[in-house]
Amino acid sequence: MTIRVLVVDDSSFFRRRVSEILGQDPLLEVVDTAANGKEAIDKVKILRPDVITMDIEMPVMDGITAVREIMKAMPTPVLMFSSLTHDGARATLEALDAGAMDFLPKRFEDIARSKEEAISQLQQRVRAIARRRLRAVTPRPAAAPVSMSARPAAPAAPARFSREPAAPLAASAERRAPPRRSGKSYQLLAIGTSTGGPVALQAVLTKLPATFPHPIVLVQHMPGTFTTAFAARLDGLCQIRVKEAQDGDVLRPGHAYLAPGGRQMIFEGRPGAARLRILDGNDKVNYKPCVDITFASAAKVYGGKVLAVVLTGMGADGRDGARLLKEQGGSIWAQDEETCVVYGMPQAVAKAGIASESLPLPLIGEAIVNEMAG
Fold it and tell me: Which tens digits make up the pLDDT trace of 223-263?
C-alpha cells in the first residue's frame, strides 16, 4: 500500500528536494506540495494524505498554526522540519504539542554522516509515522461524522486518525490499572525514548510528585540544541525538577537529568553518591545520546536497583542495556504497541523477553509512582 505524502514548505527548492527524496522510495508517493499553512489545510481536506511534511516558518500561515488547524479538521501524522537553533527548538516543541508526531532538522547534513544516510532517515521517518496512522484507521460509512476529542471532521471522511491511543485491543483493554507493586527496592529510574518521546516523556513525568524518592535519568534521541529547551519546558510543566545533565552533576531524589543531545551520559561513584559524566563518546555509535550506553552504565553502578522504562521510538536502542540491567536484577518496562508513535524500541525489549510489563502510556507515570513509592 503506497503512503501518500503532502510536502509543505515556502521554499520551492526545498519542496522539490524533499519530493525527489521521498519519490525514490517505492512505498512513498508525493501527491502534492503547498507553499504555506493555509494552502496545506485546503489541500489536506481535498487530498486526504497519509502523512504531511511541514516547515515551521512560512508566510500567510506558519506551520504550528497549520498543525493545530489540521488536527481539528482532519487529524493527520505530521513530520516537522526545524532549524537547529534555540528558537527552532522551542518552535518545534510547540509544534509537537500542537499535534505533530516527529521532527527532523531542515539541514539534512545535520542528521547523518552521508547523503545516503540522510535520505534513508527521511524515508524511514515518513514510513514510521504513516504506520501509526494505518494502525489507528477505522473504516466508517461515508456519511458518518468523524471526530477526535469531540471535534467534528469532514462529514465524508472515510477514516479516522487520532494522536490519542487507538481503540483498545486485547492487551490494552485488560490493563486498566497499574501493575501490582513488586516490593523491590530501587535507587534510580531510567527512561529511554526516541520518535514520539517528547510527548510521551511529558505524559509520564507530569505524573511524578515533587516528593519522588529517587533520581531520574532521561535519554531522548534529540539534537544538542534541542535538549536545553526541552529540559526547561519539562521543568516548567512537572512537579519534579528537570534539567539538562551536566558533567559532574550529583544525582538527587526528585530530580530528572536529560542527556545532552550529541553526547553520552554515564555514571560514576556508588548508589547514594553517584555523579554523572557527560562525554563526547565514540563517533561510531549510532545514537548520541545512546540509551544502551546509559543503561549499561547504570547496571554497573546501581546493579539491580533500577527501574528502566523504554518508551516509543524507532530501532532497538535500549535493548542491550536493558538486558544488562535485567541480568543484575533490575526491572524493565516497555510502552505498549497501541500507544506508541513508533513501536520499535519497546518492541525490541518486549520481543527479547526482557520487559516484565508492557503498559499503555497513560498508566506509566502512575505505575512508576506505585512501584517506586517505598
Answer: 888 999 999 999 999 999 999 999 999 999 999 999 999 99
In the residue annotation, 62 being an active-site residue is answered as no
pLDDT at residue 144, rounded to an integer: 33
| 123 grid coordinates | 524515508
Q: Which H or E element spans position 261?
A: none
Phi first, then psi: give them for residue 352, nearest 5 degrees: -80, -5
Instruction: Note the pLDDT of residue 73.
Output: 92
Q: In this structure, what C-alpha cell is assigned to residue 16?
A: 522539490
Report d(CA 190, CA 332) in Å as an integer.
10
CA-nearest of 37, 93, 103 to 65 is: 37
Is residue 16 a contact partner of residue 23, using CB atoms and an 8 Å limit?
no
| Distance from C-alpha of 356 to C-alpha of 358, rounded to nearest angstrom | 7
Q: At residue 86, does pLDDT exceed 60?
A: yes
Identity of the residue numbered 47: L
- Indicate if 162 belongs to the active site: no
* Radius of gyration, alpha carbons of the chain: 20
Q: Is 86 a catalytic residue?
A: no
- SS3 category, 132: helix
Q: For position 291, what pLDDT does the model report?
A: 98
Per DSSP, 107 falls in state S
Residue type, 293: I
Query: What percent of the chain has pLDDT above 90?
Result: 75
CA–CA separation, 208 vs 307, rounded Å?
14
Do the Cβ atoms of 276 and 246 come closer than 8 Å?
yes
List 55, 221, 249, 320, catalytic entry: 221
> pLDDT-based confidence at 175, cuts 50/70/90?
low
Read out DSSP for 35-66?
SSHHHHHHHHHHH--SEEEEESS-SSS-HHHH
Residue 48 falls in which region: left (phi positive, over 0), alpha (psi -120 to 50) or beta = left
Can you give the pTM of this predicted structure? 0.85
Top pLDDT among 148 and 33 is at: 33
Q: Which of 194, 297, 331, 358 is catalytic?
A: 194
Catalytic residue of the set 25, 102, 292, 317: 317
The phi-psi region of residue 3 (left if phi > 0; otherwise alpha if psi is between -120 and 50; otherwise beta) is: beta
Q: What is the pLDDT of residue 96?
A: 92
